[in-house]
Amino acid sequence: MYSVWAPLAENVELVLRPATTGTEQRIPMTREADSWFLADVPANPGDRYGFSVDGSPVFPDPRSKRQPDGIHGLSEVWQIDKPRTQLGRPLQGEVIYELHVGTFTAAGTFDAAIEKLDELKAVGVTAIELMPVQPFGGKRNWGYDGVMWQAVTDVYGGPDGLLRFIDAAHDRDLAVVLDVVYNHFGPDGNYTGVFGPYTAGGSTGWGDVVNLQGRDSDEVRAYILEAVRQWTQEFGIDGLRLDAVHALDDTGAVSLIEQIRDAAEPAWIIAETDQNDPVYTEGYKVAQWNDDIHHAIHTVVSGEDHAYYSDFGTVEVLATTFQRVFWHDGRFSSFRGRTHGRPVTDPELWRFVTYTTTHDQTGNRAAGDRPSMNLSVKQQLAKAILVLTSPFTPMLFMGEEWGASTPFAFFVDHENEELNQATREGRMREFARAGWDPKDVPNPAAEETFRDSVLKWAERTESPHAEVLRGYTDLLEFRRTHRLAEAELLDVSWWADGEEPVSETLAGVNPTVPPIDADDELASGRWIELTYQAPDSLVKVTVNLADTPHDGLGLGPWEARYGTE
Fold this sequence. Notes:
This protein is of the alpha/beta class and 565 residues long.
């Protein structure tokens, strides 16, 4: 049986093209009391179909499961043969690896990605996070312009390809995390407005605000929760990463985050939010990305201090983020021009996902340049050591583990040239405000921008990439052996010649961790040392954060040491 939710329509026709005959049929649908239109016709796998609303052109099903001809074509009846079983294992202890299917391999498909899973497992990765795989316009996209939230783009291999990938990962005891976007629809191929109030007006900056609390919003929430149950209960996805939850217009008594968490169990939820609000970890009991630790590490090592990096860049800030999780936990943010964040009071550190880079932190740079394109091997490994020896849940971005030489730039392939031009102009304005030179911004719609971002796997065995790969592999083995995901931070020591102190005591919050005593023999240079209590050992991590050697530490420029006592 075919059905579609269309509360604003008077008449809906099912336009059906059976796989057996290919002959198009138009069948009037019956309106039910709940604003769903039904057609008592068998929905046979492989049949193509769409809907005409009040005499409109034929549009695909907004709740389509497959779009073999792209986002503007007819939908196809697709159903899973056998629901997959979930691993149901906890997030704590995982090492996540974020990848974009289209640029992870030259072929850019799920099947090609399967061929690399053994190599990821050998490095120490335990969970694969796929950037969004819902249908989008054209052949190239990051995925955040997706429409039809229950479908999988055929560009990567469609739903069958995703199932093969999940099965292959599970066969290797690798979890799979899917990045999903419920805060907006992409601008290309979004026909939800033809059928009903899926959006509520206003803009998130990427698209119209999704209707989560206006009239008829119960059905929109149900659509999202259906997708959540599909991915977790039918496909066997082990975790969902929720894109930019701060952009959800969700102020009701029952949060969508709670509803998603409950619908996904026992799969885990990771929220991306820039609010620095521990309500996600302490209230909703989900995980969240933590940009503050990224910013603190990146600025200390790279020296960059523009835009949202402006409040970071000192060793004291770095030390504080390890002690208090957020730097902006009630402090003034110069980038935002206001006080930002709230203190973490009951930290379960594994609920905070940390990283040296992500698709955002690389791709939202003007040229899409990776840290590995600007830093030495020792600097790259210094950043990795701080993340991979911590009790936080670490995440790698594809190619990071060998210091990939390829950029990861922002790219699109909208089927509307005006959208491509608007995207390019918008990126230029955004980067100009952030202080980047617009001349450094590649054209997002150019195919070479996409092609240049494809990983070069052959370079993994070449110098200096092989040295970075050995460093990451050794670090992750050390992390696994000493169960650092269960460790507790006992002490932070640091020193930074010439840095002005920026700490202050906030009401009800412990003051920033102080540096070592000025009379100590190590009171020179620029360095940090973290001491963790792991289940079976005491772990010390020391990093020289300077271009000069530190004789007292016995470390050369940007060198680090980690081990047990």
